């Protein structure tokens, strides 16, 4: 039987929105960096090694590298090409991307394009690992609609630590439909990759899966730097927000209460923009958000806060410094992209997510992941309804549920229609304790083996995962 610390470490405090933690870990971390003392970097855009008609070829190497997270100190992290976070891959619908990944780490890795519609051998299945010293080629056909995807490690039992130590990067897919809308672009379209880091005084990145608040509960990082500032012009900006933490939650608000416009989520653009005071992204979720700085005079400082705190962190995420005027030809149309009708469902499946106190394992339908077992056999092109229930009520643990290969539509939460920001295409959803969420999904194009799992990666690493075999 687990002791109290082990139970807490298993995920109690990842519930997140409780105002008072049940227990605080003894901190080994450095004092937080002075907020807004470093400028926010923008991850580099990866350049192709070669181009062929309709195809771009990239080479990436996973390796350890020293980076500066805390000012003046070096931190050794696991990287794609020495970049923390990884370089951004920009792709266009209809153009195939081929990525040759080489593993120069001392641990296995499997690279998953999260949200990607790809053949099973290119999906980064947790058992299809790249051994240290080996390489693997992944092919991404990019036949899906524009969306902010991301790539990260998925090697089973290692994914939580590998992602925490840095193996994550953004993959921005565009298409003509998106480009015609006139949204902010170029230097006014910026990625915000959010995560936490527990850092020692000397800059060492601490990974402790038994920390009662989770390994990434410490200093908030935006694009790899702690609570930075960003100079902006007095005009609209489009922010591609991705929660790349292993289990943290962010509920983002402007401190002055001003509205933001959410235009997209995991699966791409929403049917219409949502004017909101708060944007929520749990582990692996993405949000596409426009902020209009023209309402602020030059010289203003605008603060982005996180209101989902576990205890010990500050609310500070990012400060925008309005430094200049600028022409703005961008717009946010009242209609964005229509949603496809998935058709009537032929099957309903149920999935219960739970934590087993006796073993410390995370379960789906009472079972741990077994790569030799198939948990569901959807038929190609046949819509299904999945009812996903979080059974963890005695120990209130949230879960984020992710399906590989296919995006889905949220039908309802406990029988209530989802909020406007969840009415687009999704590939990851949060299921709160005691909640049942119904989704509609239709697997198309590819048959073969894929997985579904909780994307709080410590849960996934402890076997909260199932396997699909998509049949013709």
UniProtKB/TrEMBL annotation:
Superkingdom assignment: Bacteria
Domain Plastocyanin-like: 64-177, 359-471
Transmembrane parts of this sequence: none
Record EC number: 1.16.3.4
Pfam families: Cu-oxidase_2 (PF07731), Cu-oxidase_3 (PF07732)
Keywords assigned by UniProt, alphabetized: Metal-binding, Oxidoreductase
Similarity comment: family membership: Belongs to the multicopper oxidase family.
Catalytic activity annotation: 4 Cu(+) + O2 + 4 H(+) = 4 Cu(2+) + 2 H2O
InterPro entries: Cu-oxidase-like_N, Cu-oxidase_C, Cu-oxidase_fam, Cu_oxidase_Cu_BS, Cupredoxin, TAT_signal
Protein name per UniProt: Multicopper oxidase CueO
Description of how the protein assembles with itself and partners: Monomer.
């Amino acid at each position: 039987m687990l002791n109290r610390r082990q139970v807490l470490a298993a995920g109690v405090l990842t519930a997140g929105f409780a105002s008072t933690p049940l227990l605080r870990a003894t901190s080994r971390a450095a004092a937080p960096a002075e907020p807004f003392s470093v400028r926010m970097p923008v991850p580099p855009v990866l350049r192709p090694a070669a181009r062929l008609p309709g195809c771009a070829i990239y080479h990436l190497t996973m390796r350890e590298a020293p980076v500066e997270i805390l000012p003046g100190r070096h931190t050794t992290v696991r990287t794609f090409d020495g970049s923390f976070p990884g370089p951004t891959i920009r792709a266009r619908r209809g153009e195939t991307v081929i990525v040759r990944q080489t593993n120069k780490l001392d641990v296995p890795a499997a690279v998953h394009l999260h949200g990607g519609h790809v053949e099973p051998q290119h999906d980064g299945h947790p058992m299809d690992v790249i051994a240290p010293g080996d390489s693997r080629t992944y092919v991404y056909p990019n036949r899906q609609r524009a969306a902010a995807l991301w790539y990260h490690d998925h090697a089973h039992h290692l994914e939580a630590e590998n992602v925490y130590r840095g193996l994550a990067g953004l993959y921005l897919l565009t298409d003509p439909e998106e480009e015609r809308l006139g949204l902010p672009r170029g230097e006014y379209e910026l990625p915000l990759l959010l995560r936490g880091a527990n850092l020692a005084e000397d800059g060492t990145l601490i990974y402790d899966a038994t920390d009662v608040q989770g390994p990434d509960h410490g200093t908030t990082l935006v694009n790899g730097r702690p609570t930075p500032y960003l100079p902006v012009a007095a005009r609209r900006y489009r922010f591609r927000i991705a929660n790349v933490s292993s289990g943290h939650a962010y509920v983002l608000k402007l401190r002055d209460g001003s509205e933001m416009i959410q235009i997209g989520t995991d699966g791409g653009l929403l049917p219409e923009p949502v004017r909101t005071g708060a944007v929520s992204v749990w582990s692996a979720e993405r949000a596409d958000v426009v902020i209009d700085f023209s309402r602020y005079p030059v010289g203003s400082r605008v603060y982005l806060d996180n209101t989902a705190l576990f205890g010990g962190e500050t609310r500070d995420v990012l400060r925008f410094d309005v430094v200049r005027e600028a022409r703005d030809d961008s717009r946010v149309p009242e209609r964005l992209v229509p949603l496809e009708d998935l058709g009537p469902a032929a099957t309903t499946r149920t999935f219960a997510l739970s934590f087993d106190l006796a073993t410390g394992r995370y379960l789906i339908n009472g079972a741990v992941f077994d790569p030799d077992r198939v948990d569901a056999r959807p038929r190609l092109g046949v819509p299904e309804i999945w009812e996903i229930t979080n059974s963890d009520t005695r120990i209130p643990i949230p879960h984020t549920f992710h399906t590989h290969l296919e995006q889905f539509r949220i039908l309802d939460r406990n029988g209530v229609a989802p909020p406007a920001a969840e009415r687009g295409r999704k590939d990851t959803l949060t299921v709160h304790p005691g909640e049942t969420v119904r989704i509609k999904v239709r697997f198309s194009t590819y048959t073969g083996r894929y997985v579904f799992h909780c994307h709080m990666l410590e849960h996934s690493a402890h076997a909260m995962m199932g396997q699909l075999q998509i049949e013709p």
